[in-house]
Protein backbone atom coordinates (compact mmCIF):
# COMPACT_ATOMS: atom_id res chain seq x y z
CA UNK A 1 0.00 0.00 0.00
CA UNK A 2 1.30 3.45 -0.91
CA UNK A 3 0.32 6.51 1.13
CA UNK A 4 0.67 10.01 -0.25
CA UNK A 5 0.06 12.83 2.25
CA UNK A 6 -1.54 15.97 0.84
CA UNK A 7 -0.95 19.15 2.80
CA UNK A 8 -2.90 22.18 1.64
CA UNK A 9 -3.57 25.43 3.49
CA UNK A 10 -7.06 24.22 4.42
CA UNK A 11 -6.43 20.52 5.14
CA UNK A 12 -4.00 17.64 5.45
CA UNK A 13 -5.19 14.23 4.30
CA UNK A 14 -3.93 10.84 3.16
CA UNK A 15 -4.35 9.23 -0.25
CA UNK A 16 -4.09 5.45 0.14
CA UNK A 17 -3.38 3.55 -3.08
CA UNK A 18 -3.21 -0.23 -3.39
CA UNK A 19 -5.04 -3.49 -3.81
CA UNK A 20 -7.62 -4.05 -1.03
CA UNK A 21 -7.15 -0.44 0.15
CA UNK A 22 -10.87 -0.39 1.00
CA UNK A 23 -10.07 -2.49 4.06
CA UNK A 24 -8.42 0.59 5.58
CA UNK A 25 -11.74 2.49 5.56
CA UNK A 26 -13.30 1.23 8.83
CA UNK A 27 -10.17 1.94 10.87
CA UNK A 28 -9.83 5.38 9.34
CA UNK A 29 -13.42 6.17 10.29
CA UNK A 30 -13.23 4.80 13.81
CA UNK A 31 -9.97 6.56 14.61
CA UNK A 32 -10.59 9.90 12.88
CA UNK A 33 -14.39 10.17 12.76
CA UNK A 34 -15.77 8.29 15.71
CA UNK A 35 -18.09 11.20 16.51
CA UNK A 36 -20.05 10.67 13.27
CA UNK A 37 -23.74 9.92 13.43
CA UNK A 38 -24.39 8.82 9.82
CA UNK A 39 -22.60 7.95 6.62
CA UNK A 40 -24.15 8.59 3.21
CA UNK A 41 -22.67 6.86 0.18
CA UNK A 42 -23.36 8.68 -3.09
CA UNK A 43 -22.68 6.46 -6.08
CA UNK A 44 -23.94 5.85 -9.62
CA UNK A 45 -26.07 3.06 -11.07
CA UNK A 46 -23.18 1.10 -12.57
CA UNK A 47 -20.81 1.41 -9.61
CA UNK A 48 -23.64 0.49 -7.23
CA UNK A 49 -23.99 -2.83 -9.08
CA UNK A 50 -20.27 -3.51 -9.01
CA UNK A 51 -18.83 -2.18 -5.75
CA UNK A 52 -21.49 -0.83 -3.35
CA UNK A 53 -21.80 -4.08 -1.39
CA UNK A 54 -18.02 -4.27 -0.88
CA UNK A 55 -17.94 -0.76 0.58
CA UNK A 56 -21.04 -1.30 2.73
CA UNK A 57 -19.56 -4.52 4.00
CA UNK A 58 -16.34 -2.75 4.98
CA UNK A 59 -18.39 -0.10 6.81
CA UNK A 60 -20.22 -2.64 9.03
CA UNK A 61 -17.17 -2.66 11.34
CA UNK A 62 -17.69 1.05 12.08
CA UNK A 63 -21.10 0.38 13.65
CA UNK A 64 -22.43 3.57 12.01
CA UNK A 65 -25.76 3.80 10.14
CA UNK A 66 -25.03 3.75 6.40
CA UNK A 67 -27.34 5.29 3.79
CA UNK A 68 -27.00 5.22 0.03
CA UNK A 69 -28.16 7.48 -2.77
CA UNK A 70 -27.76 6.37 -6.37
CA UNK A 71 -27.40 8.95 -9.18
CA UNK A 72 -27.18 8.61 -12.99
CA UNK A 73 -23.90 7.58 -14.59
CA UNK A 74 -21.19 9.94 -15.90
CA UNK A 75 -21.68 13.64 -16.54
CA UNK A 76 -25.48 13.12 -16.33
CA UNK A 77 -24.92 13.16 -12.56
CA UNK A 78 -23.40 16.66 -12.65
CA UNK A 79 -26.62 18.58 -13.25
CA UNK A 80 -28.37 21.08 -11.01
CA UNK A 81 -31.41 18.76 -10.81
CA UNK A 82 -29.38 15.80 -9.51
CA UNK A 83 -27.47 18.08 -7.11
CA UNK A 84 -30.78 19.48 -5.74
CA UNK A 85 -32.22 15.99 -5.38
CA UNK A 86 -29.12 14.94 -3.38
CA UNK A 87 -29.55 17.92 -1.06
CA UNK A 88 -33.22 16.95 -0.61
CA UNK A 89 -32.16 13.41 0.25
CA UNK A 90 -29.66 14.67 2.86
CA UNK A 91 -32.34 16.88 4.46
CA UNK A 92 -35.02 14.19 4.44
CA UNK A 93 -32.62 11.70 6.06
CA UNK A 94 -31.66 14.30 8.68
CA UNK A 95 -27.97 14.41 7.90
CA UNK A 96 -26.19 17.18 9.79
CA UNK A 97 -22.71 18.51 10.47
CA UNK A 98 -21.79 15.25 12.22
CA UNK A 99 -22.50 13.26 9.07
CA UNK A 100 -20.04 12.09 6.42
CA UNK A 101 -20.53 11.70 2.68
CA UNK A 102 -18.63 9.04 0.74
CA UNK A 103 -18.20 9.63 -2.99
CA UNK A 104 -17.99 6.14 -4.53
CA UNK A 105 -17.35 6.24 -8.26
CA UNK A 106 -15.52 7.98 -11.07
CA UNK A 107 -14.75 11.65 -11.56
CA UNK A 108 -18.36 12.70 -12.10
CA UNK A 109 -19.66 11.13 -8.88
CA UNK A 110 -16.68 12.55 -6.98
CA UNK A 111 -17.33 16.04 -8.34
CA UNK A 112 -21.07 15.88 -7.58
CA UNK A 113 -20.85 14.26 -4.13
CA UNK A 114 -17.99 16.59 -3.19
CA UNK A 115 -20.08 19.61 -4.19
CA UNK A 116 -23.04 18.28 -2.19
CA UNK A 117 -20.69 17.92 0.82
CA UNK A 118 -19.21 21.39 0.23
CA UNK A 119 -22.62 23.07 0.27
CA UNK A 120 -24.84 21.01 2.59
CA UNK A 121 -25.21 23.04 5.80
CA UNK A 122 -22.28 25.13 4.51
CA UNK A 123 -19.95 22.16 4.37
CA UNK A 124 -19.69 18.67 5.84
CA UNK A 125 -16.81 16.18 5.54
CA UNK A 126 -16.45 13.71 2.69
CA UNK A 127 -14.19 10.86 1.61
CA UNK A 128 -13.37 10.03 -1.99
CA UNK A 129 -13.37 6.37 -3.05
CA UNK A 130 -12.44 6.52 -6.73
CA UNK A 131 -13.31 3.58 -8.96
CA UNK A 132 -11.78 4.76 -12.25
CA UNK A 133 -8.33 5.64 -13.55
CA UNK A 134 -9.60 9.13 -14.42
CA UNK A 135 -10.38 9.78 -10.78
CA UNK A 136 -6.67 9.55 -9.84
CA UNK A 137 -6.82 13.17 -10.99
CA UNK A 138 -10.26 14.38 -9.97
CA UNK A 139 -10.43 12.76 -6.50
CA UNK A 140 -7.34 14.62 -5.31
CA UNK A 141 -7.14 18.36 -4.80
CA UNK A 142 -10.63 19.38 -3.73
CA UNK A 143 -12.10 20.75 -6.98
CA UNK A 144 -15.77 19.80 -6.78
CA UNK A 145 -18.44 20.98 -9.21
CA UNK A 146 -21.49 20.46 -11.36
CA UNK A 147 -21.89 21.57 -14.98
CA UNK A 148 -24.00 24.34 -16.47
CA UNK A 149 -25.35 24.16 -20.05
CA UNK A 150 -23.01 27.12 -20.73
CA UNK A 151 -19.86 25.39 -19.48
CA UNK A 152 -18.26 22.47 -17.70
CA UNK A 153 -17.64 22.67 -13.91
CA UNK A 154 -18.91 26.25 -13.86
CA UNK A 155 -20.68 25.87 -10.51
CA UNK A 156 -18.42 24.52 -7.81
CA UNK A 157 -16.15 24.94 -4.83
CA UNK A 158 -12.77 24.02 -3.41
CA UNK A 159 -13.55 21.48 -0.68
CA UNK A 160 -10.82 19.02 0.25
CA UNK A 161 -11.77 15.44 1.14
CA UNK A 162 -10.86 13.94 4.53
CA UNK A 163 -9.14 11.06 2.72
CA UNK A 164 -8.90 9.36 -0.65
CA UNK A 165 -9.01 5.56 -0.66
CA UNK A 166 -7.96 4.18 -4.01
CA UNK A 167 -8.50 0.42 -4.17
CA UNK A 168 -6.81 -0.83 -7.34
CA UNK A 169 -9.11 -3.89 -7.43
CA UNK A 170 -11.93 -1.52 -8.42
CA UNK A 171 -10.09 -0.78 -11.67
CA UNK A 172 -10.41 -4.41 -12.83
CA UNK A 173 -13.98 -3.87 -14.02
CA UNK A 174 -13.22 -0.77 -16.12
CA UNK A 175 -14.22 -0.85 -19.79
CA UNK A 176 -11.56 0.11 -22.34
CA UNK A 177 -13.13 3.51 -23.09
CA UNK A 178 -12.96 4.42 -19.39
CA UNK A 179 -9.33 3.36 -19.19
CA UNK A 180 -8.62 5.50 -22.23
CA UNK A 181 -10.33 8.43 -20.56
CA UNK A 182 -8.24 8.10 -17.39
CA UNK A 183 -4.98 7.42 -19.17
CA UNK A 184 -5.22 10.78 -20.93
CA UNK A 185 -4.93 12.48 -17.52
CA UNK A 186 -1.89 10.31 -16.74
CA UNK A 187 -0.28 11.50 -20.00
CA UNK A 188 -1.17 15.08 -19.05
CA UNK A 189 0.55 14.79 -15.66
CA UNK A 190 3.71 13.48 -17.33
CA UNK A 191 3.76 16.21 -20.00
CA UNK A 192 3.35 19.09 -17.58
CA UNK A 193 5.79 17.87 -14.96
CA UNK A 194 8.07 14.95 -15.68
CA UNK A 195 9.99 14.24 -18.86
CA UNK A 196 11.25 10.82 -17.63
CA UNK A 197 7.75 9.73 -16.63
CA UNK A 198 6.49 10.69 -20.12
CA UNK A 199 9.18 8.52 -21.74
CA UNK A 200 8.46 5.68 -19.32
CA UNK A 201 4.77 5.80 -20.29
CA UNK A 202 5.55 5.89 -24.00
CA UNK A 203 7.85 2.87 -23.81
CA UNK A 204 5.82 0.80 -21.35
CA UNK A 205 2.13 1.45 -22.02
CA UNK A 206 1.40 0.31 -25.54
CA UNK A 207 -1.89 -1.55 -24.97
CA UNK A 208 -4.43 -0.33 -22.40
CA UNK A 209 -5.78 -3.87 -22.00
CA UNK A 210 -2.40 -5.13 -20.87
CA UNK A 211 -1.53 -2.76 -18.00
CA UNK A 212 -0.08 -4.73 -15.08
CA UNK A 213 -0.90 -4.08 -11.40
CA UNK A 214 2.59 -2.74 -10.91
CA UNK A 215 2.24 -0.33 -13.85
CA UNK A 216 -1.12 0.89 -12.53
CA UNK A 217 0.45 1.54 -9.15
CA UNK A 218 3.39 3.41 -10.71
CA UNK A 219 1.33 5.66 -12.94
CA UNK A 220 -1.35 6.41 -10.35
CA UNK A 221 1.10 7.25 -7.58
CA UNK A 222 3.29 9.33 -9.91
CA UNK A 223 0.24 11.16 -11.29
CA UNK A 224 -1.08 11.88 -7.80
CA UNK A 225 2.34 13.01 -6.56
CA UNK A 226 2.59 15.48 -9.47
CA UNK A 227 -0.89 16.79 -8.75
CA UNK A 228 -0.24 16.95 -5.00
CA UNK A 229 2.88 19.09 -5.45
CA UNK A 230 0.92 21.62 -7.53
CA UNK A 231 -2.17 21.70 -5.31
CA UNK A 232 -0.07 22.07 -2.16
CA UNK A 233 1.53 25.18 -3.60
CA UNK A 234 -1.64 26.69 -5.07
CA UNK A 235 -4.81 25.23 -3.55
CA UNK A 236 -7.24 27.80 -4.99
CA UNK A 237 -5.78 28.16 -8.49
CA UNK A 238 -4.34 31.62 -8.16
CA UNK A 239 -1.41 30.61 -10.37
CA UNK A 240 0.30 27.30 -11.16
CA UNK A 241 -2.71 25.06 -10.50
CA UNK A 242 -3.99 26.19 -13.89
CA UNK A 243 -1.20 24.07 -15.44
CA UNK A 244 -3.34 21.03 -14.57
CA UNK A 245 -5.69 22.37 -17.22
CA UNK A 246 -3.25 21.45 -20.01
CA UNK A 247 -5.37 20.18 -22.92
CA UNK A 248 -8.59 21.17 -21.15
CA UNK A 249 -9.32 24.49 -22.88
CA UNK A 250 -10.21 22.89 -26.19
CA UNK A 251 -10.90 19.55 -24.43
CA UNK A 252 -13.78 20.88 -22.31
CA UNK A 253 -15.20 22.68 -25.37
CA UNK A 254 -15.16 19.43 -27.38
CA UNK A 255 -16.57 17.37 -24.49
CA UNK A 256 -19.48 19.75 -23.89
CA UNK A 257 -20.28 20.32 -27.57
CA UNK A 258 -20.34 16.60 -28.35
CA UNK A 259 -23.01 16.17 -25.66
CA UNK A 260 -21.79 14.73 -22.36
CA UNK A 261 -21.53 10.96 -22.54
CA UNK A 262 -20.80 10.80 -26.28
CA UNK A 263 -17.11 11.52 -25.94
CA UNK A 264 -15.37 10.90 -22.60
CA UNK A 265 -13.48 13.58 -20.68
CA UNK A 266 -10.09 12.00 -21.39
CA UNK A 267 -10.76 11.40 -25.08
CA UNK A 268 -11.71 15.07 -25.38
CA UNK A 269 -8.69 16.39 -23.53
CA UNK A 270 -6.40 14.17 -25.60
CA UNK A 271 -7.57 16.15 -28.65
CA UNK A 272 -7.01 19.31 -26.59
CA UNK A 273 -3.47 18.18 -25.73
CA UNK A 274 -2.57 17.57 -29.40
CA UNK A 275 -3.86 21.09 -30.12
CA UNK A 276 -1.92 22.61 -27.20
CA UNK A 277 1.24 20.72 -28.24
CA UNK A 278 0.96 22.11 -31.78
CA UNK A 279 0.48 25.63 -30.44
CA UNK A 280 3.43 25.12 -28.08
CA UNK A 281 5.68 24.05 -30.96
CA UNK A 282 4.66 27.06 -33.04
CA UNK A 283 4.60 29.72 -30.34
CA UNK A 284 7.06 28.50 -27.71
CA UNK A 285 9.52 26.59 -29.86
CA UNK A 286 8.72 23.37 -27.98
CA UNK A 287 11.09 20.66 -29.17
CA UNK A 288 8.76 17.64 -29.31
CA UNK A 289 8.35 14.60 -31.54
CA UNK A 290 4.65 15.09 -32.32
CA UNK A 291 4.58 12.40 -34.99
CA UNK A 292 5.80 9.78 -32.51
CA UNK A 293 3.24 11.01 -29.94
CA UNK A 294 0.41 10.77 -32.45
CA UNK A 295 1.46 7.25 -33.51
CA UNK A 296 1.55 6.16 -29.86
CA UNK A 297 -1.84 7.59 -28.84
CA UNK A 298 -3.49 6.42 -32.09
CA UNK A 299 -2.26 2.91 -31.32
CA UNK A 300 -3.90 3.26 -27.89
CA UNK A 301 -7.18 4.04 -29.68
CA UNK A 302 -7.47 7.82 -29.27
CA UNK A 303 -8.97 10.07 -31.93
CA UNK A 304 -6.68 13.03 -32.53
CA UNK A 305 -8.78 15.18 -34.87
CA UNK A 306 -11.56 17.59 -33.91
CA UNK A 307 -14.90 15.90 -34.75
CA UNK A 308 -16.20 17.29 -38.07
CA UNK A 309 -19.61 18.24 -36.82
CA UNK A 310 -18.22 20.71 -34.26
CA UNK A 311 -18.24 24.29 -35.46
CA UNK A 312 -15.02 26.27 -35.09
CA UNK A 313 -16.86 29.46 -34.01
CA UNK A 314 -18.75 27.64 -31.25
CA UNK A 315 -15.56 25.99 -29.96
CA UNK A 316 -13.77 29.34 -30.00
CA UNK A 317 -16.56 30.93 -27.96
CA UNK A 318 -16.39 28.15 -25.35
CA UNK A 319 -12.60 28.42 -25.10
CA UNK A 320 -12.84 32.15 -24.49
CA UNK A 321 -15.35 31.68 -21.68
CA UNK A 322 -13.17 29.07 -19.92
CA UNK A 323 -12.40 29.84 -16.26
CA UNK A 324 -8.74 30.57 -17.03
CA UNK A 325 -9.58 33.29 -19.55
CA UNK A 326 -10.04 36.62 -17.81
CA UNK A 327 -9.32 38.93 -20.74
CA UNK A 328 -10.75 39.00 -24.24
CA UNK A 329 -8.41 36.31 -25.55
CA UNK A 330 -8.51 32.61 -24.68
CA UNK A 331 -5.85 31.64 -22.12
CA UNK A 332 -3.97 28.42 -22.81
CA UNK A 333 -1.55 26.20 -20.96
CA UNK A 334 1.39 25.68 -23.32
CA UNK A 335 4.72 23.90 -22.85
CA UNK A 336 8.11 25.41 -23.58
CA UNK A 337 9.59 22.02 -22.71
CA UNK A 338 8.07 18.75 -21.56
CA UNK A 339 7.77 19.35 -17.82
CA UNK A 340 7.75 23.14 -18.15
CA UNK A 341 4.29 24.69 -18.65
CA UNK A 342 3.32 28.35 -19.00
CA UNK A 343 0.07 30.30 -19.42
CA UNK A 344 -0.44 32.29 -22.60
CA UNK A 345 -3.23 34.31 -24.22
CA UNK A 346 -3.66 33.30 -27.88
CA UNK A 347 -5.30 35.53 -30.51
CA UNK A 348 -8.48 34.21 -32.13
CA UNK A 349 -6.98 34.06 -35.61
CA UNK A 350 -4.25 31.63 -34.50
CA UNK A 351 -6.75 29.47 -32.64
CA UNK A 352 -8.99 29.30 -35.69
CA UNK A 353 -6.11 28.39 -38.05
CA UNK A 354 -4.98 25.58 -35.78
CA UNK A 355 -8.52 24.21 -35.39
CA UNK A 356 -8.97 24.25 -39.16
CA UNK A 357 -5.76 22.20 -39.52
CA UNK A 358 -6.97 19.68 -36.98
CA UNK A 359 -10.32 18.93 -38.59
O1 LIG B 1 -7.57 19.85 -10.29
C1 LIG B 1 -7.32 20.69 -11.14
O2 LIG B 1 -6.93 21.82 -10.83
C2 LIG B 1 -7.52 20.42 -12.58
O3 LIG B 1 -7.51 21.31 -13.40
C3 LIG B 1 -7.70 19.02 -12.98
C4 LIG B 1 -8.41 18.80 -14.29
O4 LIG B 1 -7.72 17.71 -14.86
C5 LIG B 1 -9.84 18.41 -14.04
O5 LIG B 1 -10.10 17.25 -14.75
C6 LIG B 1 -10.94 19.35 -14.36
O6 LIG B 1 -11.51 19.18 -15.62
C7 LIG B 1 -10.73 20.74 -14.00
O7 LIG B 1 -11.21 21.67 -14.90
P1 LIG B 1 -11.72 23.09 -14.44
O8 LIG B 1 -11.90 23.84 -15.72
O9 LIG B 1 -12.98 22.89 -13.75
O10 LIG B 1 -10.68 23.71 -13.60
From TrEMBL:
Pfam family of the protein (one): DHQS_C
Cross-referenced InterPro entries: Dehydroquinate_synthase, DHQ_synth_AroB, DHQ_synth_fam, DHQS/DOIS_N, DHQS_C
Residues engaged in binding NAD(+): 73-78, 107-111, 131-132, 143, 152, 170-173
Cofactor(s) needed by this chain: NAD(+); Co(2+); Zn(2+)
Pathway stated in the Swiss-Prot or TrEMBL entry: Metabolic intermediate biosynthesis; chorismate biosynthesis; chorismate from D-erythrose 4-phosphate and phosphoenolpyruvate: step 2/7
Details of cofactor binding: Binds 1 divalent metal cation per subunit. Can use either Co(2+) or Zn(2+).
Domain 3-dehydroquinate synthase C-terminal: 182-325
One GO term of the biological process aspect: chorismate biosynthetic process
One Gene Ontology CC term in the entry: cytoplasm
Metal-binding among keywords: yes
Keyword entries, A-Z: Amino-acid biosynthesis, Aromatic amino acid biosynthesis, Cobalt, Cytoplasm, Lyase, Metal-binding, NAD, Nucleotide-binding, Zinc
Group of enzyme by EC: lyase
Homology family: Belongs to the sugar phosphate cyclases superfamily. Dehydroquinate synthase family.
Function: Catalyzes the conversion of 3-deoxy-D-arabino-heptulosonate 7-phosphate (DAHP) to dehydroquinate (DHQ).
Annotated protein name in UniProt: 3-dehydroquinate synthase
The species this protein was found in: Peribacillus simplex
